[in-house]
Write a structure and sequence with these properties.
The chain has helices at residues 18-27, 75-84, 112-122, 148-162, 229-234, 250-256, 261-269; strands spanning 5-10, 31-38, 57-61, 67-71, 93-100, 127-132, 170-176, 186-189, 195-196, 202-207, 210-214, 221-222, 237-244. It has 272 residues and is α/β, with parallel strands linked by helices. The protein has one domain: Stationary-phase Survival Protein Sure Homolog, Chain: A, CATH 3.40.1210.10. The strands form three sheets. It has a nine-stranded mixed β-sheet with strand order 3-4-2-1-5-6-7-13-8, sandwiched between helices. Strands 9-12 form a two-stranded antiparallel sheet. A two-stranded antiparallel sheet has the order 10-11. α2 (75-84) packs parallel to α3 (112-122). The termini are far apart. The relative contact order is 0.14.
């Protein structure tokens, strides 16, 4: 790729989260780096976008003095702003994270971190998502994280993602276990595992006719399947899962071809 690589760094935890600072510092030496991130935490917003309100963009200083763009929208909005001209020419690669907590298995469908990377590939821009477990396990602000291994590994992937031969419809989903770098068992290419959600409907109070419920927050478990991202993290491996956005079930299409859809349509629409 001719010229300096243009790297867009974003996240869903907010522009002042420690993970995005660590990730940006890890890729600083690779080219021209831009940060566009939500002005507050937008975790678990998935591929949400802002369509009814204008996007407010402000320039803010990160903890080390680097100037970033803080926006009132979502992680996907951040990537679209970068691709549409906020930073001049579109970026050559999108790097999203480092998330405060893992994005594994079914969780990727909720993740704003993964959604930002997917938006990159939707726009023809290679992308990497990075997430990190807290030391000893857990997620969220206030816990201790060591982002060094996962972010350094992601930085090594950036030149690979920018190669012309790398498929433009695929993202790298990188997850780091909650151990110090010296305790990593290695790195594995994995497939998505299956989460087991133990959520329940809990009434926490009432206010007039309004009831206040909590659904989420119970510890999650997962199927113990070898070769999955969840299994790799359990064994203290850094997990790298290639993901794409093609949700079409090709086998299901073949099965439905035998359903005589024209006859079904005639039965409901009176088509002759």
């Amino acid at each position: 790729m001719a010229g300096a690589v243009r790297i867009l760094v974003t996240n869903d935890d907010g522009v002042h989260a420690p993970g995005i600072l660590a990730l940006r510092q890890a890729v600083d030496h690779l080219g021209e780096v831009f940060v566009i991130a939500p002005d507050t935490n937008r975790s678990a917003i998935a591929r949400g976008i802002t369509i009814h309100d204008p996007l407010v963009v402000d320039e803010v200083s990160m903890a080390d003095g680097f100037t970033a763009f803080a926006i009132s929208g979502t992680p996907v909005d951040c990537v679209r702003l970068g691709a549409l001209g906020l930073i001049g020419d579109p970026p050559d690669v999108v790097v999203s994270g480092a998330n405060l907590g893992l994005n594994l298995g079914d969780d990727v469908t909720y993740s704003g971190t993964v959604a930002a990377a997917l938006e990159g590939v939707m726009l023809g821009i290679p992308a990497i998502a990075v997430s990190q477990d807290a030391l000893g396990g857990g997620s969220g602000p206030g816990l201790d994280y060591d982002f060094s291994a996962a972010t350094a590994f992601a930085a090594k992937l950036v030149p690979l993602a920018c190669e012309a031969r790398f498929p433009r419809h695929v993202i790298f989903n990188v997850n780091g276990p909650g151990v110090p770098p010296g305790e990593l068992a290695g790195a594995k290419v994995t497939r998505l595992g299956r989460r087991v959600y133990d959520d329940s409907l809990v009434l926490e109070g009432t206010e007039g006719s309004a009831r206040h419920f909590r659904i989420y927050g119970e510890p999650m478990s997962h199927d113990m399947q070898p070769g999955t991202d969840l299994s790799a993290i359990d064994d203290n491996f850094l997990s790298v899962t290639p993901l794409h956005f093609d949700l079409t079930d090709l086998e299901g299409m073949d099965h439905m071809a035998r359903w005589r859809l024209d006859e079904l349509l005639q039965s409901v629409a009176g088509v002759s």
